[in-house]
């Protein structure tokens, strides 16, 4: 009886945890410039907590953090890494490893205007959004942006570590 109670308690404790292996693999990130310098506050929070290493060379990044997606982001990624087709050809040796990733369909998303409060973690190689969140700042004051960065990093950490 005691063992079944303990097993049930452990099952309930872990029921809310969702394994996100694609996030666990992210060790380095490159932050694109964001509205109201939110990227600076995020860089501080992400490195202070040791969650990921923020790199200044985009070629060293596992993922990109951006506050927008769409054609604007696709153009920026093309400028940083080359056209997607050229990147795919260069990475075809990694094709077996990446078979777990869903295939990319169609053309880049339309739009690209910045939605204040949205944040996206984009896989550098596949250019898929791995994680996103929305925390709208109440103002553009530094203390508020720092608070928003803390919330975003905290949620990312929770999802990355599966807790």
Shape: globular
Distance between the termini: 28 Å
Sheet/helix structural class: alpha/beta
The number of domains is 1
Mean pLDDT: 80
Percentage of helical residues?
A: 40-55%
Might you state the CATH topology name?
Double Stranded RNA Binding Domain
What oligomeric state best describes the polypeptide chains here?
A: single chain
Biggest beta-sheet profile: 5 strands, mixed
* Strand elements, count: 5
Q: Give the uncertain stretches in residue-range form.
A: 1-16, 102-113
The radius of gyration over CA amounts to: 18 Å
CATH architecture: 2-Layer Sandwich
Run of helices and strands: HHEHEEHHEEH
Task: Walk me through what this model shows.
- By secondary structure, the chain is an alpha/beta fold.
- It has a single domain, classed as Double Stranded RNA Binding Domain (2-Layer Sandwich), CATH 3.30.160.
- 41% of the residues lie in helices and 13% in strands.
- The protein contains six helices and five strands, in the order ααβαββααββα.
- The protein has helices at residues 2-15, 21-24, 38-48, 71-81, 84-90, 142-161, and strands at 28-31, 53-54, 63-66, 118-123, 129-134.
- It is globular and about 45 Å long.
- Residues 1-16 and 102-113 have low confidence and may be disordered.
């Amino acid at each position: 009886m005691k063992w079944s109670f303990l097993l049930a308690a452990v099952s309930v404790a872990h029921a809310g945890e969702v394994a996100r292996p694609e996030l666990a693999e992210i060790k380095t990130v490159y932050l694109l410039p964001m509205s109201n310098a939110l990227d600076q506050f995020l860089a501080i929070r992400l490195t202070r907590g040791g969650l990921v290493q923020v790199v200044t060379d985009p070629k060293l990044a596992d993922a990109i953090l951006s506050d927008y997606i769409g054609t604007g982001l696709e153009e920026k990624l093309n400028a940083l890494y080359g056209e997607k087709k050229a990147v795919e050809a260069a990475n075809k040796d990694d094709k077996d490893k990446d078979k777990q990733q869903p295939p990319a369909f169609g053309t880049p998303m339309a739009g690209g205007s910045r939605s204040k409060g949205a944040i996206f973690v984009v896989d550098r190689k596949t250019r898929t959004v791995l994680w996103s969140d929305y925390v709208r700042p109440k103002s553009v004051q530094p203390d508020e942006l720092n608070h928003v960065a803390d919330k975003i990093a905290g949620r990312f950490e929770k999802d990355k570590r599966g807790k």
